[in-house]
Amino acid sequence: MQIREFFKPFFGTVFIIVILTFGQVIADLLLPDYMAKIVDDGIAKGNFPFIVRSGLIMLGIAFVGIICAISAGYFASRIALKVSCNMRESLFRHSLNFSLSEFEQIGTSSLITRTTQDVQQIQQTTFIVLRMMMRAPLMCVGGIIMAARKDDDLSMMYLISLPLMFGLVYFIMLKAIPLFRSVQRKIDQLNLVLRETLVGIRIIRAFSRIGFEKKKFASANDDLTETSIQANRMMAILNPAMNFCMNLLTIAIIYFASFRIDKGSLMVGDMMAFIQYTTQIFMSLMMISMLFVMLPRAFASAERIRAVFDLKEEITDSEDSVIDWKRKGIIRFKNVGNGVVQNISFSVNPGENVAIIGGTGAGKTTLLNLILRYYEVKKGQIEIDGIDIRKMKQSDLRDMIGLVPQKVTVFSGTINENIRMGKENASSDEIIEACKIAQADEFIENLPQKYDTKVAQGGTNISGGQKQRLSIARAVVKKPQIYLFDDSFSALDFQTEAKVREALKKETQNATVIIVAQRISSIINADKILVMDNGKIVGEGTHNELLKTNNIYREIAASQLSEEELM
Question: What is the pTM of this model?
Answer without folding.
Answer: 0.67
